[in-house]
Amino acid sequence: METWDAIRSRRNVRSYAQEAIAPEDLDQILEAGRRTPSAGNQQAWDFVVCTDPDQLTQLARVWRSGGHVAGSAATIALIAPNPDDARSRDLIQYDLGQATMSMLLAAADLGIGSAHSAVSDQALARRLLGFPEDRFCAWLICLGVPADRPLAPIRRPNRRPFEDVVHRGHW
Ligand SMILES: Cc1cc2nc3c(=O)[nH]c(=O)nc-3n(C[C@H](O)[C@H](O)[C@H](O)COP(=O)(O)O)c2cc1C
């Protein structure tokens, strides 16, 4: 897929076909995350990729609306440190957002659907994923071939109008 098509085709896909993601495709998505820019090039992220259906079923319980985790072909957990100062926490969340978008677009490029999931039960996430005490699980990225329809450029996305969002030279 062309980049512009991938940008326009990505959408929140919460139900997935019962189809595995090829290991090389999954690695390409993870590599997109690894290549993401970060503040000071700190790369303060680790990615735990899960494909085992039993583990995914358990992982779905870390967030009350995480049902799509259970049905995903793979879910990538974004693990990060939790520094005391607000500035560092902001930067890490910005970096994680960029890594997320890189992976969502890499997935879309391969025709693979994606969806975020929040994480609230950190103790359960830690037990299932085994990350160290000084880290937390920030977000989950669920992946899978869309169950409903293939990804294709969305003509009229559910977004604020262009002229409302874009300010030229001045607000
Ligand atoms: C930080 C963040 C957290 C999100 N958390 C969830 C979530 O827990 N569950 C979910 O179904 N979607 C979640 N989403 C997906 C958004 O609801 C979705 O991207 C938005 O409604 C726009 O729809 P689209 O992705 O189809 O364009 C999250 C998105 C972001 C950016």
Our Rg estimate from Cα atoms comes to: 17 Å
Give the overall shape: globular
Distance between the termini: 35 Å
Instruction: Please state the average pLDDT score.
Output: 97
Main structural class? alpha+beta
SSE sequence, one letter per element:
HHEHHEHEHEH
Low-confidence stretches: none
The number of distinct β-strands equals 4
Helical content stands at 25-40%
- The helix count comes to 7
Question: Order of strands across the widest beta sheet?
Answer: 1-2-4-3
Biggest sheet features? 4 strands, antiparallel
Small-molecule binders here are:
flavin mononucleotide
Strand content of the residues, in percent? 15-25%
Give keywords.
alpha+beta; four-stranded antiparallel β-sheet; 7 helices; binds flavin mononucleotide
Q: What features would you describe in this structure?
A:
- Helix content is 39%, strand content 16%.
- It has 171 residues and is of the alpha+beta class.
- α1 packs across α5.
- The chain is built from seven helices and four strands; from the N terminus they run ααβααβαβαβα.
- The longest helix is centred in the middle third of the chain and has 24 residues, at 86-109.
- It has a four-stranded antiparallel beta sheet, with helices on both faces.
- Bound molecules: flavin mononucleotide.
- Residues 11-12, 14, 63, 65, 115-118 line the site of flavin mononucleotide.
- The site of flavin mononucleotide has 9 residues, from β3.
Q: What's a concise summary of this model?
A:
It is built from seven helices and four strands. The chain is α+β, with helices and mostly antiparallel strands and 171 residues long.
